[in-house]
Amino acid sequence: MKMEICLFILLLSCLLLLTTANSDVRLVDGGDPCAGRVEVLHEGQWGTVCGDYWDMEDAAVVCRQMFCGDAVAAPQYAHFGEGTGSIWMSNVACGGSESTLKDCGHNERIPQYCRHEYDAGVVCSGNFEMQLTGGPHPCSGRLEFKHGGSWYTVCDPDFDLQDAKVVCRQLGCGIPVEEPRGAAFGKGGGQVWSKKINCKGDESDFGQCLRSSTEEQNCNHETDVGLKCFWYTDSRLVGGPDSCSGRVELQYLNHRSIRLVGDAGGCAGRLEVLHQGSWGTVCGGSWDLKDAQVVCRQLQCGTALRDPVPTFFGPGTGPIWLDEVDCEGNETSLWDCPSAPRGQNDCVHKEDVGVVCSEYKEIRLAEGCSGQLEVFYNVTWGNVCFNQMDTNTASLICQHLNCGKSGTVSNSWSRLKGAPNWLDNLKCRPHDSTLWQCPSSNWGDNKCDEDEVAQITCDGCSAASKDRPCSRHPPMRLRGGSSECSGRVELWHNGSWATVCDDSWDLRDAQVVCRQLGCGTALEAHGNSAFERGNSTIWLNEVNCRGDELHLWDCPHSLQEQRSCSHKEDAGVTCAAPSPQYRLQAAVGKTILPQN
Question: HSE of 173 in the Cβ direction (CA atoms, 13 Å)?
Fold first, then answer.
């Protein structure tokens, strides 16, 4: 009997080891599985990592362990909020090639100065190289992915439709048609990922499935998974009387395909091209507006808005297929333009090209997760009318902005002076997944008065704002000036209003602030705390806008609590003028910006 109990305990211990082997690190409060505060599992409890000596080599190991691509940033000082409980690791010293964070040199005796305000964080690129090879087109073939510098095939016994959905979606290949078994597209030459994969089907990337992969299987290249996806990337109805009827057209993928990654509408983002069955990026060497015009025309996204584009679309991964692109501007395809030999360049991913086209659309609420609903279209921020809008529509908007799952809507006076009313009669249906699928009047066609602008309040803002901004773009305000359009610049961060250090602050930065707040043109950029000193965290430094960005957040900047600055260096702006409607709203007790 004692022997049986011992064997049972031993078996249970082994199962626990298998279960936690790939799940002893997680990223928390980053709004994404591949970004957040680093937490490690030790003695059955999750705890944080002290940020002393934390750097990109440490972050690289975490990203690899999490199947989250490359490390983009290694923020310290509780950038993703302070954790709770124990601090399990300090003085982490990874070489960058370790398999897990716990393989890195570190101290388990935590110094007294390590408190949760020093918690380490990580931002990863969010994906890794994956491809279908050996098939007749890029959306059919043997499934392979790259991890830790090695290529792996996938074992087929338990690979099912839910797993296939995630792969096809991530590759931009529509939906799965078939999962051929028994190395149907030939045997791979690398390693075999022998752990069982169990996707739910709604994961945003295949790496999420691999992170939870623990149970071992008996695999070899005889069982390499194959996959056939329905080879189209988009669909539409054309020629009908409204958006819900017409001729069905499917957009198919081909080795001449291009895409913009980083915006749900597909008309702005990092430029990626398909070559040899793999998506890769384009190097920014010699890139100009003529090249961008060809991209926008090929994607049927109008004309290119600006060049160069800020790097807020982030670096890509995988190959860099094109460099030294030199279009005349009238080509029908980017592939018709001269360029350097494919794959032969000395570029790095921080040089990846981004493009913004005129059909790019974005929405925002004036106060982050509440306020007037505004749409960026045709190079201009404009209003959305209240007519026919209901709580279903408001809820979809709140979800799109990461502001909760529901919201309420009412009418209000426009805060944007002279702004167009872009959308009217907007009413989303239960099956619409994005705002752009919802029926509405044509762009610019409206019967909307100045007091009929939609104002939305989301339910997620008040709860989330206790810890961090609940919108994709933190709320911003001006304080201490002579009007609502002049003063010290403040951003909402970690439950309080934070200021901006004036290092590198200039008129181009001020221009972005004024535009974002609907305050017209910037007249002056102030430093040295011209509008009195703030009294909380100094969050941004070295802001370096070009002046045409949509948000201050889109500009290059240093992001963390700025301990080298003091409040005597708080940045401020003076904008041309507020709108008359702002004064009317203030008179009836409404406000544009959040209050303390």
Answer: 28
Two structure tokens written together for 208? 């999420």
Using DSSP, state whether 194 is helix, strand or coil. coil
SS3 400: helix
Angle 463-124-356 from CA coordinates, rounded to 5°:
85
Question: Given the structure tokens 């989303």, which residue do they identify?
Answer: 428
- Long-range CB contact pairs, 181-185, < 8 A, 24+: 181/156, 181/223, 181/225, 181/226, 182/156, 182/222, 182/223, 183/142, 183/221, 183/222, 183/223, 183/224, 183/226, 184/142, 184/226, 185/132, 185/133, 185/134, 185/135, 185/140, 185/141, 185/142, 185/224, 185/226
Q: Write out 438-478 in H/E/C secondary structure.
A: CCCCCCCCCCCCCCCEEEEEECCHHHHCCCCCCCCCCCEEE
Angle at 390 between CA 384 and CA 392, to 5 degrees: 105
Predicted pLDDT of residue 588: 28
pTM of the model as a whole: 0.46
Q: Which amino acid does the sequence have at 588?
A: V
pLDDT reading at 488 higher than 90? yes
109-122 per-residue burial string, b: 16 or more CB within 10 A, e: under 16? ebeeebebebbbbb
Q: Where are the beta strands (DSSP E) in 293-349?
A: 320-322
Triad 240, 245, 251: Cα angle to 5°: 90
Q: Are 231 and 171 in contact (CB under 8 A)?
A: no
Question: Could you tell me the end-to-end alpha-carbon distance of the chain, in angstroms, rounded to an integer?
Answer: 67
Q: Are 171 and 228 in contact (CB under 8 A)?
A: no
Tell me the CA distances in angstroms from 426 to 377, 420, 438, one per residue in order.
Answer: 16, 16, 7
Q: Which domains does the chain have, with CATH numbers?
A: 12-124 (3.10.250.10), 130-233 (3.10.250.10), 254-356 (3.10.250.10), 362-464 (3.10.250.10), 476-587 (3.10.250.10)
Q: How far apart are CA 506 and CA 22, in angstroms?
A: 47
Phi and psi at 68, nearest 5°, equal -120, 25
Gyration radius of the chain over CA positions: 26
With a CB cutoff of 8 Å and minimum separation 6, the contacts of 320 are 280, 281, 282, 283, 343, 345, 347, 349, 352
Question: What pairs with residue 362 in β-bridges?
Answer: 376
Sequence-distant (6+) residues with CB within 8 A of 388 are 425, 426, 427
Tell me the average pLDDT across 158-170.
84
Mean pLDDT comparison of 126-135, 388-397, 436-445, highest-scoring range:
388-397
Closest to 370 (Cα-Cα) out of 462, 478, 438: 462
C-alpha 556/C-alpha 311 separation (Å) is: 7
Q: Which residues neighbour 348 within 8 Å (Cβ) at sequence distance 6 or greater?
A: none
Asked if residues 352 and 345 have their Cβ atoms less than 8 Å apart, the reply is: no
State whether the Cα torsion 410-385-586-525 is positive or negative.
positive
* pLDDT on residue 583: 32
